[in-house]
């Protein structure tokens, strides 16, 4: 229910921020569609696998959105493919006028680590926070696995680390680690969801189909025992288009938006339950998630 409430809050915020009616949004962009995973308690590790089946320039396939940020893969407007991991500062995450350098230094998200070849910077225009991005040659039809781990950092922050599975090396690549003040359950990952977004929004982009298969969410409170989400709620943003769909697909889910897509399977706001039962064991790669040694947090400033 919490995710459902948050989804409605997000829709209202997005509509106000863009100052556009649902019909105006429908005239220029595909509708964003989401899966809000159910039945998974607060975790210190979360993992999702996604296989893109249809893409277009200006598409974000988010594997793991959570209370502190999100990670996934994108096809940029020029057709290049990247991976992205972002963590918010405290504040209004739907403030589309927010400037990254206007956030007080004391509450900014801190960069604790950036992997080789990863560009780390700050972002604005959707709240503010820390962003990491790297070239990542994902391909249509081939699965991508990503994970987020978390741990308390100092007295008030949570450190979130993003991982990408490298099948050739059979190892996880540590993309980045950020420490943030965001999060009611300090040190925990909560409210996990996946989504597909058209961020090109150039009128033509609404006619391009974007679709992906998502596994169940796997989550763990201790990095050892893993729980799989049993179902997910199908939600969408305020855009009026109904060229969207969600459906069960094997042991996971399919999300589709854009083009001539018809909502023939699961109705918006309903639950999607995979056809196959919950796997008895999570993917073997999850047992290989490395532990993270964090740098010491800065010492508190002495009182005046």
Summarize the structure.
With 304 residues, this protein is mostly beta strands.
Explain what this protein looks like in three dimensions.
- With 304 residues, this protein is mainly beta.
- The chain has a single domain, classed as Jelly Rolls (Sandwich).
- 7% of the residues lie in helices and 41% in strands.
- The protein has two helices and 19 strands.
- The strands form two sheets. Strands 2, 6, 9, 10, 11, 13, 14, 15, 17 and 18 form a ten-stranded antiparallel beta sheet that branches. Strands 7-8-5-4-3-12-1-16-19 form a nine-stranded antiparallel beta sheet, with helices on one face.
- The protein is globular, with a radius of gyration of 19 Å.
- The protein starts with a helix and ends in a 32-residue tail after the last strand.
- The model is unreliable at 1-18 (pLDDT under 50).
What attributes characterize this protein structure?
Jelly Rolls, 304 residues, 2 helices, ten-stranded antiparallel sheet, mainly beta, globular
The helix content, as a percent range, equals under 10%
Mean pLDDT: 89
What quaternary form is this? single chain
Element pattern in H and E: HHEEEEEEEEEEEEEEEEEEE
Tally of DSSP β-strands = 19
Briefly note the structural class of the backbone: mainly beta
Which CATH class is shown? Answer: Mainly Beta
Number of helices: 2
Alpha carbon gyration radius = 19 Å
Break the fold down into its secondary structure elements and pairings.
Blueprint: H1 2-18, H2 22-26, E1 33-38, E2 45-54, E3 59-66, E4 69-75, E5 81-88, E6 110-114, E7 119-123, E8 129-135, E9 143-153, E10 157-166, E11 171-180, E12 193-198, E13 210-214, E14 218-220, E15 226-228, E16 231-236, E17 244-249, E18 252-257, E19 271-272
Antiparallel strand pairs: 1-12, 1-16, 2-9, 2-13, 2-14, 3-4, 3-12, 4-5, 5-8, 6-11, 7-8, 9-10, 10-11, 13-18, 14-15, 16-19, 17-18
């Amino acid at each position: 229910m919490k995710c459902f409430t948050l989804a409605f809050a997000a829709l209202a915020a997005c509509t106000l921020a863009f100052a556009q009616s649902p019909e105006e949004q429908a005239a220029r962009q595909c509708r964003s569609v989401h899966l809000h995973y159910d039945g998974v308690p607060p975790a210190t590790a979360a993992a999702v696998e996604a296989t893109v089946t249809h893409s277009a320039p200006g598409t974000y396939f988010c594997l793991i959105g959570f209370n502190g940020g999100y990670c996934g893969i994108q096809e940029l407007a020029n057709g290049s493919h990247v991976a992205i991991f972002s963590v918010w500062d405290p504040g209004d995450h739907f403030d589309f006028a927010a400037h990254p350098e206007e956030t007080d230094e004391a509450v900014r998200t801190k960069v604790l680590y950036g992997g080789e070849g990863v560009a780390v910077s700050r972002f604005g225009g959707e709240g503010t926070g820390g962003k990491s991005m790297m070239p990542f040659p994902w391909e249509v039809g081939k699965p991508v696995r990503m994970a987020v781990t978390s741990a308390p950092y100092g007295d008030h922050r949570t450190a979130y680390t993003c991982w990408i599975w490298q099948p050739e090396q059979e190892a996880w690549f540590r993309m980045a680690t950020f420490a943030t003040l965001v999060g009611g359950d300090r040190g925990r990952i909560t409210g996990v969801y996946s989504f597909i977004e058209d961020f090109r929004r150039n009128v033509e982009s609404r006619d391009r189909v974007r679709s992906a298969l998502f596994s169940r969410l796997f989550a763990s409170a201790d990095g050892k025992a893993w729980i799989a989400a049993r179902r997910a709620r199908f939600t969408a943003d305020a855009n009026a288009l109904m060229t969207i769909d969600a459906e069960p697909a094997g042991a996971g889910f399919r999300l589709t938006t854009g083009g001539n897509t018809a909502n023939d399977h699961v109705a918006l706001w309903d639950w999607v339950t995979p056809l196959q039962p919950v796997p008895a064991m999570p993917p073997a790669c999850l047992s290989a998630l490395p532990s993270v040694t964090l740098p010491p947090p800065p010492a508190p400033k002495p009182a005046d």
